[in-house]
């Protein structure tokens, strides 16, 4: 398996697992926990998992002094993105918030184009527009109800922070750091934000039932440890923009669990939106091979020579 295929697979896994946030977070909210407490435990439980993986692979925890500041910045970006997203769940349905979060690929593409002169191809623009059109179909209410402004602003802040993180991870200065170590320190520095917000434990809400601790552990493993590991490695294989666009699978995951777990109805409009998003992701993965496939398809139907009319 070549690096490009690995990158696309890791990007898809990262997006799908990150879309599991509402699945594990909403029962915790229902039990009375607040976003700060949920995220504190989410990060706290993920850090030892990554630490054990680091030691199992025989890697050390040493950092160069010059890498410290960038990793602290990335940690706070990731933590703020998580906090803004989880707080938005209090203002709108989690599925809608997860869907709106998908504006971050546009932000990534624009940042890479404006700041780092990455060429914004027509195919990339069309795929983004196609995916956004599909997302619009997923959660455009039939009654025309407007979304909560505070909730929308929180999601936009979350998307921008995540976009800057994705771009930052792809910078040459951090590419030499092993993926596991980078993710470990990003989460380690990120948890400090929640430690401050829960007043160093004095305002921390503790889960009362054993199954809620299962939710917290699942949050730490799937949308945190696995998702951030796969995101970081996918960026190193295929770059920031394709990894971000593969994030289309995040709202698909939210829709899947909404239908199967929370009893949401799968309407024709919802199905059409899903197809549009899958098509956009497929086109991005195919990349430059699309033209090759179209040429091969065209060769199946060669032109027949035109017969000259007898004068």
Automatic annotation (TrEMBL):
SUPFAM superfamilies: Multidrug resistance efflux transporter EmrE. The keyword Membrane applies. InterPro entries: AA-Vitamin_Transporters, EamA_dom, EmrE-like. GO terms for cellular component: membrane. It holds the Pfam family EamA. It comes from the Bacteria. Its main location: membrane. It is found in: Membrane. Keywords: Membrane, Transmembrane, Transmembrane helix. Residues 6-139, 150-285 form the EamA domain. Coiled coil: none annotated. Belongs to the EamA transporter family. This is EamA domain-containing protein. It comes from Parabacteroides gordonii MS-1 = DSM 23371.
């Amino acid at each position: 398996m070549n690096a490009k295929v690995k990158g696309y697979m890791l990007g898809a896994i990262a997006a799908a697992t990150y879309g599991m946030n509402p699945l594990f977070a909403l029962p915790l909210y229902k039990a009375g926990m607040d976003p700060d407490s949920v995220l504190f435990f989410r990060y706290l439980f993920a850090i030892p998992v990554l630490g054990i993986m680091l030691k199992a692979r025989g890697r050390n925890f040493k950092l160069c002094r010059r890498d410290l500041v960038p990793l602290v910045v990335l940690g706070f970006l990731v933590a703020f993105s998580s906090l803004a997203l989880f707080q938005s769940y209090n203002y709108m349905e989690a599925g809608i918030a997860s869907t709106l979060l998908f504006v971050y690929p546009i932000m990534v593409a624009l940042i890479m184009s404006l700041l780092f002169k990455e060429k914004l191809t027509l195919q990339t623009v069309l795929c983004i527009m196609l995916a956004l059109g599909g997302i619009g179909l997923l959660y455009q209410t039939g009654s025309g109800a407007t979304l909560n402004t505070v909730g929308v602003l929180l999601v936009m802040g979350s998307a921008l922070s995540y976009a800057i993180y994705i771009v930052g991870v792809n910078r040459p200065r951090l590419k030499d750091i092993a993926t596991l170590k980078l993710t470990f320190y990003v989460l380690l520095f990120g948890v400090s934000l929640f430690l401050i917000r829960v007043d160093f434990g004095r305002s921390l809400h503790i889960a009362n039932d054993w199954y809620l601790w299962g939710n917290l552990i699942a949050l730490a493993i799937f949308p945190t440890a696995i998702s951030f590991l796969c995101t970081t490695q996918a960026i190193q294989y295929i770059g920031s923009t394709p990894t971000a666009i593969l994030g289309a699978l995040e709202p698909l995951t939210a829709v899947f669990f909404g239908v199967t777990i929370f009893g949401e109805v799968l309407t024709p409009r919802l199905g059409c939106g899903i197809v549009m998003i899958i098509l956009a992701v497929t086109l991005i993965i195919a990349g430059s091979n699309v033209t090759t496939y179209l040429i091969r398809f065209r060769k199946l139907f060669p032109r027949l020579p035109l017969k000259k009319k007898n004068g």
